[in-house]
Amino acid sequence: MTISQQSRRQFLQGMAAAGAAGIVLPNTNRAMGYESPNERPVFATIGLRNQGWGITNKSFKFADFAALADVDENVLGENIEKADKAQKKRPDAYSDYRKVLDRKDIDAVMIATPDHWHTKISVEAMYAGKDVYCEKPLTLTIDEGKLIEKVVKETGRVFQVGTMQRSESGQRFLQAVALVKNGRIGTVKKVTCGIGGMSGSPVIPAVAVPKELDYDFWLGPAAEVPYRALPEMRKGYGGGVPLYSNCHYSFRNWHEYSGGKLTDWGAHHVDIACWALGATETGPSRIAPLEYTLPVEYKDGYPVVHDQYNTATKFKIQVDMPNDVEMIITSEGDNGILFEGTEGRFFVNRGKITGTPVEDLKENPLPEGAIEEVYGGPVSENHTANFIEAMHSRKQPISDVWSHNRMLEICHLSNIAMRLGRELKWDPAKREVVGDEQANSFLARENRKGFEINM
């Protein structure tokens, strides 16, 4: 059963009454689908490996999953069994996501495919009348972000980007944003985003495609290339797939499908930095690659070697942000964000928040409601709960496409600057590189024939 208009009105009336009384509603009461079995939204997940199952598993508490889709029949089958066990109801299985979008009973889709598929599925889902939760990084190019913004506005769909640091991680990041916004380090002068580096790869040979994988459909909008893999298997997170390949898990290390560490961890930490700086509606003026290592040779911004990983392994990038703030994005040092201002500094990551301004909170706490003010209301139980609350209110959630795309532009531009080997000047109003036609040619990418976006 889909969410009824009556329930939506009741939910909004309840929220309005609570706000008028100054009451913070318990987090567990605000995701309506979790409270009322007959009004639980109906979801489907497209792309199920690793993070796809992770966001699905977190969402059983709030929604019913009617369908799952994946191009790998082994991954699809395993997750159908897990979902059946978790929700005591077996979802339908699809190898083609378009069959999910055709279903009128599905309210929303969760998308956790490789990055190069995000925009096509997201746009088509919105035109099919679905609200969308899509994993980060949202796009492969800057122009894809503009297209998604246009379609969100045109269709009125609710769209949550999966940058979970805005809702989870023990509220450390919300506290960090509140510290900056409440002047606890004075005027911000510098912010350093440590996002870690990566290793290159050995030569990865072309081999036979695993029989369970529809590799052509996995490639989708990307160019047709041979399937590559070495026999050694990956352990731990991302296990069950080759350690080196141009497909499952390792797609992040290829510009054809993703953007390396810049769009993987950068999409998390640069996001929090921009949020704290109040730069979610604007962008940088200059992006300069101070130091960087590309694992293969490039010519005119494109790799000339096609059998090895090609995203940057090490880097130090300087970004000129509004109000004379210097942002450094680096592969060195501790993973996390260091904020430095005229009156102090502190560091935050998923495990800790440290520094004198944090210690001073014992004697001088943040004003009451400071965290809620950052979040825009009572903090949701998790990212899915916030998404469902937004589905009821028909307002955009905590991680909206506009703020996400603005910060992701920094990550995309950093990659372009390294690929071309020069600094870029950026016009945040026109959203284009100033005086550099070649660099601007990297803001978009044409989909492979047969995989154009259906609009």
Automatic annotation (TrEMBL):
One of its GO terms (molecular function) is inositol 2-dehydrogenase (NAD+) activity. NCBIfam families: TAT_signal_seq. Residues 76-162 form the Gfo/Idh/MocA-like oxidoreductase N-terminal domain. This is Inositol 2-dehydrogenase. Keywords: Oxidoreductase. InterPro entries: Gfo/Idh/MocA-like_OxRdtase_N, Gfo/Idh/MocA_oxidrdct_glycsds, Gfo/Idh/MocA_OxRdtase_bact_C, NAD(P)-bd_dom_sf, TAT_signal, TAT_signal_bac_arc. Pfam families: GFO_IDH_MocA, GFO_IDH_MocA_C2, TAT_signal. It comes from Rubinisphaera italica. Its EC number is 1.1.1.18. Residues 200-452 form the Gfo/Idh/MocA-like oxidoreductase bacterial type C-terminal domain. PROSITE patterns: TAT. It is an enzyme of class 1 (oxidoreductase). It comes from the Bacteria.
